[in-house]
Amino acid sequence: MKKKLLALLMAMAMLLSLAACGGSAASAPAASGTDTSSAAENSAPVQDEETVDVDEEEAEASNVAEASVEEPEEEATEMDFTAANAAMDFSGYKEMLKSLTTSLPITEEDVTLSYFFGFEGSTLNYIPSGTMDGHQVWTWLRENTGVNVELKVVDKTQETDQFNLMIASGDYADIIPAYDYSAGLEAAVEEDIMLDLTDIIEENMPNYWTIVHSDQNLLSKVLDADMFVGIYAIKDQMANPSGQGAFIRMDWLEDLDMEVPQTYDELTEVLRAFKTEKGATEALALPNTVNVNNGVLMGGFGSLAELSTNGMGVDFGASFYQEDGKVIYGATAEGTHKYLSWLHKLYEEGLISMDNMQAREMNPFSDYNAGMAANGTNGYMFNMQPFGGMYSGMSEDPNCNWWPVQDVAETAGQTIPFFEEVSLIDMTAVALTTACEDAEIALQFLDYGYSYEGSLLYNFGFQKGSGHEVETWDFDENGEPLFDGDAIKQVAESTNIASGVISTKDLAGVVFDKRLSFEFEEREMSCFDAWSTNKTTDGILGSKTVLTSEEATDASGLYSDILTYVATSALQFINGDKDVDGADWDEYVKNIEGMGIAELTEIIQGAYDRANA
Predict the structure, then answer these.
(1) Per-residue burial over 473-502, b = 16 or more CB atoms within 10 Å of its CB, e = otherwise
(2) Which residue in 103, 164, 395, 442 has its CB near the most CB atoms, within 10 A?
(3) DSSP calls for 480-532
């Protein structure tokens, strides 16, 4: 089993190089209307002869659409796709994306831009010369855009430390990952680290400008304190489930003639049966965050809280929620009390393992996830689509069937108000620093990733038949770009997929949300329905609730000690060192009140009120 498991994990790890980061926090056939008249013969992805004939009318339509974008009517202020996108109808939005173009080369001048980013070090071993400079996509970009990008690549594991050293030195790269600056983008502008691009972005990034102004919700999410600072990766649709959800051993459930649990009581009975009848030594695989993102597992008790320092840290949206406009701190709420009491009962019955839980990160490939899921240790777990479903194929048990299921609540059909927002933002963003002397050219270069042609290159690499060393995709029968499964397998036999397909995944641009769909089957796509069952966003603070830099400093100072105390206490409540149903709980709440939780809540309330004024 170990060899089989390792092979599958390696395959999925290579896919992660493409899928994960579009890098977060994640959001159309080669555009024959794209103007690349000045590009070299060895061009970006192009259609083959059969496709070109079919798409001549589309090309003309694209040119017409482009003209309308370049000369908008002054009175046209309606966000064309706000309502449709919210209703998950992305057809019009996707057609608009196909019309966006960038004329190459971007500049005839000698322009060099430096770009700092982290990348998986092992991948570099598969690239000619062993450096990112030898990557075929970066080579093509230099030859065809006219911009020489000087890459400052560090190992992903050292990115934070190296970024902080760069900031401390004052020797900034021109382009940097926006969210590596922990104090926030507004603070980065105030401290003369990042540029406020508001006055120059419309003229120099027409594709990006068109996209973000096509949807009011999208526009609100790319603004940083009413400025354009970060340039965000944006999806072409919401096609794949994001966040996390539950998977169950459906084969065990069927063998036991039991229904999918919808309540905590039903889940408890299922876990007991998994232990006694199926030999699960840890029926519920709880992660080291104690609860799961977006209120999963915990939200059915009516509260949302961060209960571990292994969680989101200073993401106050993970610790606070609202009811009728009133902001509530979740770690002392009655719902959290019920949740910890329930976990304590599971612990006493041997249905969860404290040791495994504290060691289990949300890494889908770790032994605490993949290994235990494959060998029958667990019967109920949490993970990120599509990895949970992949565990079925890793098991020696031919009947192993990990299947996505809905979240549980106190009563069947109960609404859980902590579902994550549907957003076209893929939470990767780059920013220009104050060291960038060619900001206009830099923006024009970045805007290529928002053209249809550029987005194909960034997401899929080079099209089959285009004459490049590694070609990995083609259009399907419906004219949609799709990785070619056979080509991907051939690449994987000799190289890492990321080294042959794309090195610019952190360079923003449009992210195709179905680009790995050749790997998806019914199990993976079922995550959408299962994880959204009975879920709403009614209780979350929302992404518009943003603290000012001063508020963030004050809030972080208060929150650090509170979270440390909460995390320690949560473990003690679960293992019984503290009586969760007795006086210890009351003392816990009183102690948190004495640590300034009222002041912290007032800060979050102010930010929430400001966002919803």
Answers:
(1) bbbeeeeebbbbeebbeebeeebbbbbbbb
(2) 442
(3) -EEE-HHHHHHHHHHS-HHHHH-S-TTS-SEE-TTTTGGG--HHHHTHHHHHH
Coil/strand/helix, residue 112: strand
Q: How far apart are CA 463 and CA 474, in angstroms?
A: 5
Cα torsion 99, 197, 505, 424 to 10°: value is: -60
**407: Cβ–Cβ under 8 A, 6 or more apart, which residues?**
245, 246, 296, 297, 299, 300, 416, 531, 533, 534, 535
Instruction: Write down the pLDDT at residue 45.
Output: 43
Q: Fill in the DSSP letter of residue 450.
A: G
| pLDDT attached to residue 346 | 98
Element (H, E) at 320: strand 320-323
- Tell me the C-alpha distance between 195 and 213, whole Å: 21
Nearest of 37, 30, 35 to residue 58 by alpha carbon: 30
Residue type, 203: E
The answer to whether residues 290 and 398 touch, using CB atoms and an 8 Å cutoff, is no
Amino acid (1-letter code) at residue 210: T
Which H helix or E strand runs over 114? Answer: strand 111-119
Cα–chain center distance at 279: 35
Contact yes or no for 292/419 (Cβ under 8 A)? no
3-state SS, 60-107, equals HHHHHHHHHHHCCCCCCCCCCCHHHHHCCCCHHHHHHHHCCCCCCCCC
From 331, 380, 387, 374, select the one nearest 353 (Cα to Cα).
380
pTM of the model: 0.65
Spatial distance between the Cα atoms of 377 and 400, rounded to a whole number of angstroms: 12
CA atoms of 2 and 544, how far apart (whole Å)? 46
Taking the CB of residue 611, how many other CB atoms lie within 10 A of it? 14
Question: Are 174 and 114 in contact, with CB atoms under 8 Å apart?
Answer: yes
Q: Give helix then strand counts, H and E, for the chain.
A: 26, 14
Strand segments (E) across 326-391: 326-329, 380-383
Task: Give the 3-state secondary structure of 134-203.
Answer: HCHHHHHHHHHHCEEEEEEEEEHHHHHHHHHHHHHHCCCCCEEEHHHCCCCHHHHHHCCCECCCCCCHHH
Give me the residues of the chain with pLDDT under 50, please: 1-78, 493-497, 499-500, 502-503
**Residue pLDDT, tens place only, 205-250:** 999 999 999 998 899 889 888 899 999 999 999 876 666 899 999 9
Determine if residue 588 is left, alpha or beta; phi over 0 gives left, psi from -120 to 50 gives alpha, anything else beta. alpha
**Identity at 206, one-letter amino acid code:** P
Residue whose structure tokens are 């060895």: 42
The sign of the CA dihedral 599, 604, 608, 613 is positive
The helix/strand/coil state of 368 is: helix
